[in-house]
């Protein structure tokens, strides 16, 4: 349904050190950033596929290219069999889109007026437009508030309306860029179940971007983790997590003391990588990947550096997407993973 091959997109932007004086006396210096660098994706019909990556990973750029808002610099993308450069109209007919940060509904209109407006844009008139609007309002759970002004909607309702608007023309593919950002847990949950429903009962293929690991895990049939414009791993959430091995993650909690526990631990041969450190008020928890499967916590509790600490607990943990991300990229997903500069 969506096929991306060796996709590339570069941007030119003013260097951060392009100080005001430089702009006045000479031309500002520019750098080229590779937002997407050789991305390959294949998304099957009816699949819920997530692009997971930190800020600046290239998620929105990929989405903008797929929905014909941006031209690629290299590679190719086909959506429902149509090329995003050569067959733009056909691509747009087959795709519904909601992109983060782009206000896609009119706040001064009611929900119904918005949906009617979008139906008209897609050529629906009169009775067929009215019935499609009711259908969509029902699908996105807004029937009882459809005649309210959008400015009085909650964030979650606005988001659901935007998704409703993108579904008006019954596209077989829905592309959503971080739709749960800014929603409270209930709003996000409602939106996720709506999307799951669309995918499972109506067979809509969904490409979803997020930097929430848990969300990607819960929703996706398959996902790709991207970092600095490149795919680092792809598969079902279970396959991606299993890439770290089944018994290679330990979580060690010690009482806080004047010394850091993670540094001496990371020097131990059995510890391959420190994945996460969480400092609480009284305790510090270190999540680490080991070089060999750990079948008994005794191996860990006997480590020399831990002798100086008051151990609260040690247990084996299931690998998470976050662990995979840290293992493969060396950084945490909450850190800014900006695209690499080429100059
Ligand atoms: N119009 C633009 N001009 C210059 N640079 C851009 C432009 N759009 C994106 N970039 C750069 O391209 C890189 C990828 O940006 P993109 O918005 O695709 O990332 P993202 O994964 O969507 O991040 P976020 O999670 O913050 O939304 C970043 O380094 C960004 O600064
Ligand atoms: Mg983005």
Enumerate the strands of the largest sheet in spatial order, edge to edge or round the barrel: 6-7-8-3-9-10
Structural class: alpha/beta
The molecules bound to the chains, other than polymers, are: adenosine-5'-triphosphate, magnesium ion
CATH superfamily of the largest domain: P-loop containing nucleotide triphosphate hydrolases
The DSSP helix count reads 12
Mean pLDDT: 87
Radius of gyration: 24 Å
Shape: globular
* CATH class placement of the largest domain: Alpha Beta
The main pleated sheet reads as:
6 strands, mixed
Beta-sheet strand percentage? 25-35%
Give me the count of strands: 15
Stated plainly, the CATH topology of the largest domain is called Rossmann fold
Order of helices and strands: EHEEHEEHEHHHEHEHEEHEHEEHEHE
How far is the first residue's CA from the last residue's CA? 36 Å
């Amino acid at each position: 349904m969506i096929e991306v091959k060796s996709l590339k997109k570069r941007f030119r932007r003013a260097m951060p050190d392009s100080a005001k004086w430089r702009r006045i006396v000479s031309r500002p210096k520019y750098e080229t950033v590779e937002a997407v660098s050789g991305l390959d994706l294949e998304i099957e019909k009816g699949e819920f596929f997530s692009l997971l990556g930190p800020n600046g990973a290239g998620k929105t750029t990929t989405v903008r290219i797929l929905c014909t808002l941006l031209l690629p610099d290299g590679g190719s993308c086909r959506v429902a069999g149509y090329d995003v450069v050569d067959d733009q109209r056909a691509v747009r007919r087959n795709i519904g889109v909601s992109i983060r940060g782009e206000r896609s509904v009119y706040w001064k209109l009611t929900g119904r007026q918005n949906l009617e407006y979008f139906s008209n844009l897609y050529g629906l008139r009169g009775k067929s437009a009215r019935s499609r609007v009711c259908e969509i309002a029902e699908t996105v759970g807004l029937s009882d508030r459809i005649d309210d002004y959008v400015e009085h909607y909650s964030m979650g309702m606005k988001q659901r309306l935007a998704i409703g608007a993108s579904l008006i023309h019954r596209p077989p593919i829905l592309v959503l860029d971080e739709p749960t950002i800014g929603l409270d847990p209930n709003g996000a949950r409602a939106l996720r179940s709506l999307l799951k429903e669309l995918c499972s009962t109506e067979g809509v293929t969904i490409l979803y971007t997020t930097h929430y690991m848990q969300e990607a895990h819960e929703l996706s049939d398959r996902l790709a983790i991207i970092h600095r414009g490149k795919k680092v791993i792809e598969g079902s959430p279970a396959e991606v997590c299993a890439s770290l091995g089944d018994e290679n993650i330990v979580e060690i909690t010690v009482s806080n003391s004047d010394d850091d526990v993670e540094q001496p631990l990371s020097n131990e041969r059995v510890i391959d990588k420190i994945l996460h450190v969480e400092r609480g008020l009284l305790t510090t928890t270190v999540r680490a990947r080991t070089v060999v499967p750990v079948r008994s916590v005794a191996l860990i509790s006997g480590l020399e550096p831990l002798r100086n600490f008051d151990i609260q607990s040690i247990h084996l943990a299931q690998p998470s997407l976050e662990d995979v991300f840290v293992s493969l990229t060396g950084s945490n997903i909450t850190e800014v993973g900006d695209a690499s500069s080429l100059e």
